[in-house]
Amino acid sequence: GLPWDTSEETLRDYFSQFGVLEEIRIIKHKFTDKSRGFAFVSFFDQDSALQALMTEHTIDGRRCEAKVALPKTEGTGSQATRVFVARIPSSVTEQQFRQYFETFGKLQDAYMPKNPAKQMYRGIGFVTYVNPESVEKLVSMKHYLNGSEVAI
Fold it and tell me: How does DSSP classify residue 19?
């Protein structure tokens, strides 16, 4: 996570290299007003957000991970069945991608978009499961494809 003393200004300076920022919000404890070690960073365009997700980050001397924020849902738990995967190594095939993620549950779809100009995978993917329980299991752990950690 973020160092406790990281400021919004530091995050704005750092993440502006990826594109125009819409909002930065450091999450703080309700009673102490101290940082909880994470923040939400919103970009005006999706390409900037994808670039930030596919990059390894060191902020104020600490390695930090960028993830897609999943919306909270009402009721007993998340009903999400689709996840976004970033930082996929270029050596991973769509078949390997599918095989890895189907170990967490029955897939409805697994897709890695290609860069049309180069006909190479873009380093991102989308996985859709039949059951939300598969997503809950998936997001609770770290994942590695061809020896490299991917971001969920």
Answer: S
Does the reported pTM lie above 0.90? no
Share of the chain above pLDDT 90, in %: 29
Residue 126 phi, psi (nearest 5) = -130, 135
- Alpha-carbon distance of 127 to 47, in angstroms, equals 19
Give the percent of the chain with pLDDT over 70.
Answer: 93
Dihedral angle over CA of 129, 55, 114, 67, nearest 10: 20
Residue 80 in this model has a pLDDT that exceeds 90: no
Write out pLDDT tens, residues 1-52. Answer: 888 899 999 999 999 999 999 889 898 887 788 888 888 898 888 888 888 9
- DSSP H/E element including 95: helix 94-101
Q: Is 15 exposed, middle or buried (0-12, 13-18, 19+ CB in 10 A)?
A: buried
Q: What radius of gyration do the chain's Cα atoms show? A: 17
The whole-angstrom separation of Cα 124 and Cα 88 is 6
Greatest distance between any 2 Cα atoms in the chain: 52
| Domains of the chain, CATH where assigned | 8-64 (3.30.70.330), 82-150 (3.30.70.330)
